Amino acid sequence: MRNNRSLDALLLRTRQDSPVAIFPVEAYNNAGTQKTQQTVGREGGHVAYFNFQWTDEIVEHLAEHGVEPEEFEEVVSYPDRRGLSRSSKRPCCWGELPDGRSLICVYEFIDDITILPVTAYEVPMPGDEVEL
Amino acid sequence: MSDRQTVPMTPELRERWQLAVRETEAELPELLDMGERLREAACEDTLSGHLRRAIHRSRHRLEAIAESADIAVEDLNLFLSGERTLRSDVLDRLALAVEFTKGLQAAWQPPEHKS
Question: What residue of A is the nearest CA neighbor of B77?
Answer without folding.
Answer: A83
